[in-house]
Design a protein that fits this description.
Oligomer: heterodimer
Number of helices of chain A: 12
CATH superfamily of the largest domain in chain B: Thiamin diphosphate (ThDP)-binding fold, Pyr/PP domains
CATH topology of the largest domain in chain B: Rossmann fold
Helix content of chain B: 40-55%
Distance between the termini of chain A: 44 Å
Strand content of chain B: 5-15%
CATH topology of the largest domain in chain A: Rossmann fold
CATH architecture of the largest domain in chain A: 3-Layer(aba) Sandwich
Strand order of the largest sheet of chain A: 2-1-3-4-6-5-10
Number of domains of chain B: 2
Largest interface: A-B, 62 and 58 residues
Chain lengths: 316, 349
């Protein structure tokens, strides 16, 4: 963000606690001191208001980055995102654009319970007019955010609470940008393809490493990175190679990202598949508080591993 | 009372006539099935519409709700572009993509008719924020209906406009009914402008059918917005003669007598009387009506002649130029027909 703010003075940040507080998750730490309160604007708790303000400012050529503290709070601004920002290009005949970025973390796992443990990115990715990105690595967190800021359309960048703690190499080049609409093969393999995004990719990589060690299974992991546009080409090429697909997401699978993947894979890879496309997601309940129940509800590594073994016809 | 040059008043009268004739014709064309969707007419609200937009400077911005034909015309959007949009034709101001509720003309600072009640209010605050960031000494006029003030977006937007000192005037067109629900049945406070006090914003309530009073109040408040970044609320008490939309006869929730009573005090007649007082001859005033009718008839003819958008352009405009490459890898396994309808149709070209 800092690099993009230096590069383009139209870029500014607004959201709850992004300034004085340094960001609820410290993503904007230090920006207020460097850029001042006009470019790092603290807002009231007023998501519909300030997301809409981002839409309006973007329509007049600004490049707002709106931070929503967690994706759970984006629902009160859903009207501005889905009914307004997403419609501008098409509904006004291409006469005006909305280069808005919304950043927000999804995810669960800290006993935050039903209202603060959700992953709604699939709902937004289901909306034509939006672009939805979901990095799984520190490098892509930078590269995809920069791509979003430079893009001329409304882009939702879904970060993740657990990934905030991940460490990894990050290119220092200010021109390093991850292309929108391009998935990454995060791990090469030959026996089965694990397809995931956001924190589910981190889980999938852990499972793939363990399956190699314990079962001699070679699992390929495709990190989607972008949900809309969705890089089905990379997914299909991988499944054509492995003949087996397990789709994983942090959110509920019904009508979810994995549902969309399964539909596209069965069509694009009809002749390649040696097993039904499997899906793993959050158990379809509101997230409970008790740690044991929370663990059970998450698409944890044990569940992913079981799904992969079942798809390969192996017993765990 | 504001004094206004006779020539200017005559121009505003012409705009009011144009709106009335346009709305009357739009209803006729809707009933002839040349206009589809919703069609919200503003007959009876011409003084409020024209008086408020008259106070806009050329660089000021306008956003409105969906009862927006009159505002588009008053802001100078060509009659042909408005009518063609209602007809769903390529020469419409949104190229047949928006229809009656989504008129716009960025070249005239008109950033849209919006279809979700109160949804345009946060956007107006954002436009005002952008004006401030760009150092432009201009203001945003944000039109809304009386129904919109019960939405959360109203409260959030007024609060943001107040705490951030944004140059925006919220123009409440109080036509007494939100669809079929009267203000008395919908709002705990029926003097709607008083709601602004909750955000310590100045507010005024004026007779929206008094052109000069509207022009004066809007000029004052827009001036304060431009010069002092002072947001405000202007409530214009007016009345719509027709139903909520053409599909509504408008009689389930009010009486014929009530409507007739308002027609007796028609805002257009009131301006005509002013012009007559100023010595403009009757024949000349009658001629202005004929001119408006000719303009609208020409717009209908142009709309009939304008082609509908080609199906091959179904996805045009949805994404910015350069997006086609981003979406290219989405094709395998895409739903039936998506390749032909969307990808082949200039997605982000």
């Amino acid at each position: 963000m800092r690099e993009e703010m230096l590069r383009d003075e139209r870029v500014f940040v607004m959201g709850e606690e992004v300034g004085l507080f340094d960001g609820a998750y410290k993503v904007t730490a230090g920006l207020l001191g460097e850029f001042g309160p006009e470019r790092v604007r603290d807002t009231p708790i007023s998501e519909e208001g300030f997301v809409g303000a981002g839409v309006g400012a973007a329509m007049l050529g600004e490049r707002p980055i709106v931070e929503i503290m967690t994706i759970n709070f984006l629902l009160v601004a859903m009207d501005q995102v889905v009914n307004h920002a997403a419609k501008i290009g098409a509904m006004f005949g291409g006469e005006v654009r909305c280069p808005l970025v919304i950043r927000t973390p999804n995810g669960a796992g800290n006993q935050l319970t039903a209202q603060h443990s959700q992953s709604f990115e699939g709902w937004f990715a289901a909306t034509p007019g939006l672009k939805v990105l979901a990095p799984a690595t520190p490098a892509d967190a930078k590269g995809l955010l920069k791509a979003a800021i430079r893009d001329d359309d409304p882009v939702l960048v879904v970060e993740n609470l657990a990934i905030y703690k991940e460490r990894g190499e990050v290119p220092l080049d200010p021109e390093f940008v991850t292309p929108i609409g391009l998935a990454a093969v995060a791990r090469e393999g030959t026996d089965v393809t694990l397809i995931a995004h956001s924190y589910a990719t981190v889980r999938a990589l852990h499972v793939a490493e363990r399956l190699e060690r314990t079962h001699g299974i070679s699992a390929e992991v495709v990190d989607l990175r972008s949900l809309r546009p969705l890089d089905v080409e990379t997914v299909a090429a991988s499944v054509a190679k492995t003949s087996r697909a397990v789709c994983i997401e942090e959110g509920w699978p019904t009508y979810g990202v994995t549902a969309e993947l399964a539909a596209r894979i069965q069509y694009a890879c009809f002749d390649d598949l040696d097993a039904p496309v499997e899906r793993v997601g959050m158990a379809e309940v509101p997230m409970p508080y008790a740690k044991e129940l929370e663990n059970a509800a998450l698409p944890n590594e044990q569940r992913i591993e079981s799904a992969v073994l079942a798809t390969l016809g192996r017993r765990s | 009372m504001m004094s206004i040059a006779t020539a200017t008043l005559r121009g505003l009268y012409e705009q009011m006539l144009l709106i009335r004739v346009f709305e009357t014709e739009a209803e006729r064309q809707y009933k002839a099935a040349r206009i589809g969707g919703y069609c919200h007419l503003s007959s009876g609200q011409e003084a409020a519409t024209v008086g408020a937009t008259h106070s806009l400077d050329p660089g000021d911005l306008l956003v409105t709700g969906y009862r927006c034909h009159g505002f588009a015309l008053a802001r100078g959007v060509p009659v042909e572009a408005v009518m063609a949009e209602l007809f769903g034709r390529v020469d419409g101001c949104a190229h047949g993509r928006g229809g009656s509720m989504h008129l716009l003309d960025v070249s005239r600072g008109y950033y849209g008719g919006w279809g979700i009640v109160a949804g345009q209010l946060p956007i107006a605050t954002g436009l005002a924020l952008a004006l401030v960031r760009q150092g432009r000494p201009q203001a945003v006029l944000c039109e809304l209906g009386d129904g919109a003030i019960n939405m959360g977006a109203w409260h959030e937007s007024l609060n943001l406009a107040a705490v951030w000192r944004l140059p925006v005037v919220f123009l409440v067109m109080n036509n007494e009914y939100g669809m079929g629900t009267s203000v008395e049945r919908a709002s705990a406070v029926t003097d709607l402008y008083r709601r602004a006090a909750a955000y310590d914003l100045p507010a005024e309530r004026v007779d929206g059918d008094d052109l000069l009073a509207v022009a004066q109040a809007s000029a004052t408040l827009l001036g304060a917005a431009r010069e002092e970044r002072q947001a405000s609320v202007l409530e214009l008490v007016t009345y719509r003669y027709r139903g909520h939309s053409v599909a509504d006869a408008g009689l389930a929730y009010r009486t014929r007598g009530e409507i007739d009573e308002h027609i007796q005090r028609d805002p257009i007649f009131r301006v005509r009387a002013l012009l007559a007082q100023e010595g403009v001859p009757d024949a000349e005033l009658d001629g202005l009506m004929g001119a408006a009718e000719e303009q609208v008839a020409a717009a209908v003819a142009a709309s009939v002649a304008s082609p509908p958008p080609a199906v091959s352009t179904l996805a045009t405009g949805m994404y910015a130029p350069g997006s086609a490459a981003q979406f290219a890898r989405m094709l395998p396994g895409a739903p039936f027909g998506e390749r032909e309808l969307v990808f082949a149709g200039g997605l982000g070209e």
